Amino acid sequence: MGAREGSELQGKRVAVLMTDGVEQVEYTRPRQFLEQHGAQVTLVSPKSKGEQVQGFNHLSPADRFTVELDVKDARPGDFDALVLPGGVANPDQLRLSKDAITFIREFAQEAKPIAAICHGPWTLIDAGVAKGKRLTSWPSLQQDLKNAGAQWSDEPVVIDGHLVTSRKPDDIPKFDEAMMQVFSAKVH
């Protein structure tokens, strides 16, 4: 792309749903990519606006990020796409948040794009989104996703309709490309 920033996602509003324990690079790199291409990104969490989310580099605490919108105040209608980063503790806690799971479920019901990486797809089970879908994830989620009725595949990125899933931080470049493709599509 060179020095020029892209505008492929100009006007697109993207929610990133996460909480403490998020794998930092799975938040920061996709957010930077989306913003470079014109998207407006909002950090949504089951915490109050202004509170901090603790990021991790694998098992080590890393940076903290400020919540921009409490998920209980978030409406899928206010966004064009949803990103679900991984990290083990992050989706594990989101699964216990009724508001977070409802937000994901409503996104899927409105056939809006959802992109989940690493352990992020775990929340798709609770939201009832995994059943009948082709997807990938961090390998340890394979059995859970299969038990939920998903067709699991060990690929860097899998696109099934409006759903984009990816395995791990090394796959972020392919994850970003897939988000660009699905988020910029005019299918609604």
Care to give the gist of this entry?
With 188 residues, this protein is of the alpha/beta class. The chain contains 6 helices and 12 strands. The strands form 3 sheets. A 7-stranded mixed sheet has the order 6-3-1-7-8-12-11, sandwiched between helices. The chain has a 3-stranded mixed sheet with strand order 2-4-5.
Structure characterization notes:
The protein has 188 residues and is of the alpha/beta class. It contains 6 helices and 12 strands. The strands form 3 sheets. A 7-stranded mixed sheet has the order 6-3-1-7-8-12-11, sandwiched between helices. Strands 2-4-5 form a 3-stranded mixed sheet. Helix 1 packs across helix 6. The model has no long low-confidence stretch (mean pLDDT 95).
Name the features:
three-stranded mixed β-sheet, single chain, about 190 residues, 12 strands
Topology of helices and strands:
Elements: E1 13-17, E2 22-23, H1 24-36, E3 40-45, E4 52-57, E5 60-66, E6 69-70, E7 81-84, H2 89-94, H3 98-109, E8 114-117, H4 122-126, E9 134-135, H5 142-147, E10 151-152, E11 157-160, E12 163-166, H6 172-183
Parallel strand pairs: 1-3, 1-7, 2-4, 3-6, 7-8, 8-12, 9-10
Antiparallel strand pairs: 4-5, 11-12
Helix pairs in contact: 1-6
- Rg computed from alpha carbons, rounded to a whole number of angstroms: 15 Å
Low-confidence stretches: none
Largest sheet, described in full? 7 strands, mixed
The average pLDDT score comes to 95
Query: What portion of residues is helical?
Result: 25-40%
